[in-house]
Write a structure and sequence with these properties.
The structure holds two protein chains of two kinds. By secondary structure, chain A is α/β, with parallel strands linked by helices. Chain A is 39% helix and 15% strand. In chain A, strand 9, helix 8 and strand 10 form a beta-alpha-beta unit. Chain A is globular, with a radius of gyration of 20 Å. By secondary structure, chain B is mostly helical. Helices cover 27% and strands 0% of the residues of chain B. Chain B is elongated and about 40 Å long. Classes of the chains: A alpha/beta, B mainly alpha. At the A-B interface, helix 9, helix 11 and helix 12 of A face helix 1 of B.
């Protein structure tokens, strides 16, 4: 039953097979768990594989289906969670030594909503320690490795999530994104990753890094799969003070709507000399394809984006060091060197610097509100470089490059998706980032889906 | 070395690279002044204003 193609089917495809009972949830979970155990020695995408939990949940899914209780498109679908999401009775390490043995008593809101939608949890994914880094080089659990070339980084911090999804180990993984930690690994591993609007997806029960920049979102192989996951997890949650009170439409409904009249702006500041030419070509080709579907494309210049470094330095460093203040005092020696250095930097910033960052955030938001009166979607490369090797990725400059085009949209809280836009000559994936107005996930997903279906990059498979 | 209010050292001795990176971070923050933030008096927010009306 578990043929190789099963691993790479979409949620819709495999969900229909489950619904028709051509395959059982237990058979599907077993196939995915076997693949996880076979490949994880190479990819190191998981900190914990939850075989027993997965099989128990799969048995429940089969029983529910047999009794006529169909829970929806995620019924029986194997998924994983970045090991930052609290899971009742399952270790939640945050990729750290400090929490190596922590077993939460309750689920995060997202974990609970996915379980209630029928999803089957196959494991907890590797990540950069406490999500505070872009490489997923983890001193405690080892680096996650890129399925397209295991000598290359996955990007981070949701690197285990992107590696698992790209390698056909599960149909989705939930990541978190404080400066690009969903979109960056999605781009480097050739999958789809969404950072939703700030407030759309609850962060309750997810270990915080920077409360005004943290977002939760899925990584999947197709845009429709992303929409299916988002449909299950959006909605107000009183446990997250930033959670928005609004009704989100079914995000699958509009995916096939036409592009006519849609205005796309290409951000010129993010198409400069620091971008690898193949990536620029990939982005331009994607926009040409969308023009062919009826969208209009124009170049947009926003010189103020150059202030990204200052805003992020002020806000991210200050908030992260506040979150970790207690452990910095009592357990500082248990942090990895790179994360400890960043946290110590944050401790040296002044309140005035933090507030200056928040003032600048407001000014940038006003600027972008004006920009979005002339366009519906902003397009950029997701990352200016191809996946580097681990040694190439070390250091402050590399980190700044990896997150250079994604961090700003955490500051602004705008929805942003990374969708594959081709492969380099040496076989490494490239990503197109599409950004929308607040709560216009429907629009960016429609554009991403239209391009994805025309380009078909999701049919490529890494040789793992 | 900087000290906390109670007189204890704020952190382990910092090396040159640590200080260089910190200086770069502070310079980036200082540059935010060019956004005309003097007029931002009273308009500080602490979270992205996703609920602002966008046309």
């Amino acid at each position: 039953v578990a043929d190789e193609s099963l691993h790479y089917q979409t949620i819709r495809e495999v969900g229909e097979r489950l619904k028709r009972r051509e395959i059982s949830a237990v058979e599907l979970a077993t196939a995915i768990l076997d693949r996880a155990e076979k490949l994880d020695g190479t990819l190191n995408a998981f900190i914990t594989i939850t075989r027993e939990t997965a099989l128990a949940q799969a048995r429940s899914a089969d029983q529910a289906l047999a009794a006529g209780h169909y829970l929806g498109p995620l019924h029986g679908i194997p998924i994983s969670l970045k090991d930052l999401y609290q899971t009742s009775g399952i270790t939640t390490t945050g990729g750290s030594k400090i929490l190596a043995d922590w077993v939460p008593e309750a689920d995060s809101t997202v974990a609970r909503r996915l379980r209630q939608a029928g999803a089957v949890l196959i494991g907890k994914n590797n990540l950069h320690e406490f999500a505070y880094g872009a490489t997923n080089e983890n001193p405690h659990y080892g680096p996650a490795r890129n399925p397209w070339n295991v000598e290359r980084i996955t990007g981070g911090s949701s690197g285990g999530s992107s590696a698992a999804v790209a390698a056909g180990i599960g149909y989705a993984s939930m990541g978190s994104d404080t400066g690009g930690s969903i979109r960056l690994p999605a781009a480097l591993c050739g999958v789809v990753g969404v950072k939703p609007t700030y407030g759309l997806v609850s962060r309750a029960g997810v270990l915080p890094l920077s409360w005004s920049l943290d977002h939760c979102g899925p990584l999947t192989r197709t845009v429709e799969d992303t929409a299916l996951i988002l449909n299950a997890i959006v909605g107000h949650d009183a446990s997250d003070p930033a959670s928005a009170s609004r009704v989100t439409p079914d995000l699958c409904t509009a995916l096939d709507r036409r592009m006519n009249g849609l205005r796309i702006g290409l951000l010129t500041e993010y198409m400069g000399d620091n971008v690898v030419p193949e990536i620029k070509d990939g982005v331009r080709a994607a926009l040409t394809a969308l023009q062919g579907q009826g969208a209009s494309v124009e170049e947009v210049s926003v010189p103020e984006v150059g202030h990204r470094n200052g805003v992020v330095a002020a806000i991210l460093y200050s908030e992260a060091s506040t979150v970790h203040e207690r452990w910095l005092r009592t357990r500082g020696a248990e942090y990895g060197a790179d994360v400890l250095e960043r946290l110590r930097h944050g401790q040296r910033l002044a309140a005035t610097q933090y507030l200056r960052g928040q003032q600048a955030r407001r000014a940038l938001m006003e600027r972008f509100r004006t920009v979005f009166t002339g366009i519906d979607v902003l397009a950029t490369p997701t990352v200016p470089i191809l996946a580097p090797t681990l040694p190439e990725s070390r250091g402050w400059a590399a980190r700044s490059q990896l997150l250079g085009f994604t961090q700003l949209f955490n500051v602004l809280g705008l929805p942003a998706v990374s969708v594959p836009c081709g492969f380099s000559r040496n076989g490494l994936p490239m990503g197109l980032q599409l950004v929308g107005r607040p709560f216009e996930e429907e629009t960016i997903l429609r554009v991403a889906h239209t391009y994805e279906q025309q380009a078909g990059w999701y049919n490529n498979r890494p040789a793992v | 070395m900087q000290q906390q209010p109670d007189g204890t050292p704020a952190q382990a001795p910092a090396d040159d690279q640590f200080e260089r990176i910190l200086s770069a971070l502070c310079e980036d923050i200082e540059k935010l002044d060019t956004l005309g933030l003097a007029d931002e008096r009273g308009r500080v927010i602490v979270e992205p204003a996703s609920t602002l009306h966008w046309s």
